[in-house]
Design goal:
It is a single chain. This protein has about 400 residues and is of the alpha/beta class. The protein has 2 domains: about 120 residues, Enolase-like, domain 1, CATH 3.30.390.10; about 230 residues, Enolase-like C-terminal domain (TIM Barrel, Alpha-Beta Barrel). Helix content is about 35%, strand content about 20%. The protein is built from 12 helices and 13 strands. It has a 7-stranded parallel sheet. Strands 1-2-3 form a 3-stranded antiparallel sheet. Helix 1 packs across helix 2. It is globular.
Length: about 400
């Protein structure tokens, strides 16, 4: 039995190493919502609920995530035995509809506490436990400039950090976007897998044309080319000539996963812990995908170290992860907020092995970057260009 004794939710803003240009927003910093729960025995758990570009990506913003946790979820936690993570989250689901990002942050913190209490990593609390200790990790080339993206891709290849690249397109004319993708495919050749993410910005007609053209220039995969709620159109695109279609914004947990699978509206699922509504729900999305013969990819909301570690734990339990992952979020930020960064190297990210999430927050960095910091916090951390980890 464990009772909640303290709950803190804070928004932490960390600059990105370069502008990150997406179809719907250009990011210069990332706003992470960090939740810290402490139980009656003093065991602490941390979680993260992070989105992209304010409200331009989805229906939850950093501010709404914080307010849903503080105002509606914490009061429910106060009535629960929080050592029972599944039962607690069932009760939260009864009291709070939607708000998947907020629920994910809380479930992550509860799982971190449960793992610490039991002395096991979070991956051991999901399904049959982990089947891998590290996973391939993609990088997104999104500087907005083709030559700079090629140079960045070359640098990542020579560092042996990434050989899967996702390009963010959908902002320009289809022909210009495909020319940009083609130039990068040509420069990197068979040393890399090049994929694109349109973030829902094409019409069906643009997607039909774009997907055929992308195949001709050597692109391997297209992520969410059209609106995620148009499953019928996704199904038409997924079955016509062109690169395979990956569902991202269309997926909001097991029910949408089942609808997409039943409609044959995607060949690949981007698994995301926040969008799914937590780690347990992500494992269910993965199971539906696997049963339907849909390929799986470990997606990100560009979380920092906490959400990235949580994602790594659940992705480590998926039997087959044919498309790898994109768990590079902490590397896009100028500063690491963990005491020890996640391990990156040899084109892979390592799954932490310690109890719970196996990570710890750096209190000085949190004090400096938290949005509500007091003006008395003096010591600025040293900003570095790329926090490459191991
Ligand atoms: O998939 C998205 O839309 C979000 C994200 C993941 C990588 C990246 O650069 O942006
Ligand atoms: Mn996406």
């Amino acid at each position: 039995m464990a009772l909640l004794s303290q709950a803190d939710t804070l928004i932490v803003d960390v600059p990105t190493i370069r502008p990150h240009v997406l179809a719907m927003a250009t990011m210069h910093s990332q706003a992470m919502v960090i939740v810290r729960l402490t139980d009656s025995d003093g065991v602490e758990g941390i979680g993260e609920g992070t989105t992209i570009g304010g409200l331009s990506y989805g229906e939850e913003s950093p501010e709404s995530i914080k307010s849903a946790i503080d105002t509606y979820i914490v009061p429910v936690l106060k009535t629960c035995d929080i050592a029972r993570v599944g039962a607690t989250m069932v009760k939260v689901a009864k009291c709070v509809r939607g708000n998947h990002f907020a629920k994910c942050a809380v479930e992550t913190a509860l799982l971190d506490m449960a793992g610490k209490r039991l002395g096991v990593p979070v991956s051991d609390l999901i399904g049959g436990g982990r089947v891998r200790d590290e996973m391939p990790v993609a990088w997104t080339l999104a500087s907005g400039d083709t030559a700079r993206d090629i140079a960045e891709g070359e640098e990542m290849l020579s560092l042996r950090r990434h050989r899967i690249f996702k390009l963010k397109i959908g902002k320009r004319d289809v022909r210009d976007d495909v020319a940009h993708v083609g130039a990068i495919c040509k420069a990197l050749g068979d040393r890399a897998s090049v994929r694109v993410d349109v973030n829902q910005n094409w019409s069906e007609a643009q997607a039909k044309r774009g997907m055929a053209m992308l195949q001709d220039v050597g692109c391997d995969l297209v992520e969410q080319p059209i609106a995620g709620d148009d499953i019928a159109a996704m199904a038409r695109l997924a079955t016509t000539r062109g690169v395979p279609l990956m569902a991202d914004e269309a997926l909001h947990g097991p029910r949408t996963a089942l609808r997409i699978a039943s409609a044959a509206a995607a060949g690949v699922f981007a698994l995301k812990i926040a969008q799914s509504g937590g780690l347990f729900a992500t494992a269910e999305v993965a199971a539906i995908g696997t049963a339907a013969g849909i390929g799986l990819y470990g997606g990100t909301m560009l979380e920092g170290g906490v959400g990235t570690a949580a994602s790594a734990h659940v992705f480590a339990t998926v039997p087959e992860l044919a498309w790898g992952t994109e768990l590079f979020g902490p590397l896009l930020q100028t500063e690491e907020i963990l005491t020890a960064p996640l391990g990156y190297g040899d084109f892979a990210v390592k799954v932490p092995t310690g109890p719970g999430l196996g990570i710890a927050l750096d209190p000085d960095k949190i004090a400096f970057f938290r949005r509500d910091r007091s003006t008395t916090v003096a010591a600025a951390p040293i900003l570095h260009a790329v926090n490459a980890g191991a």
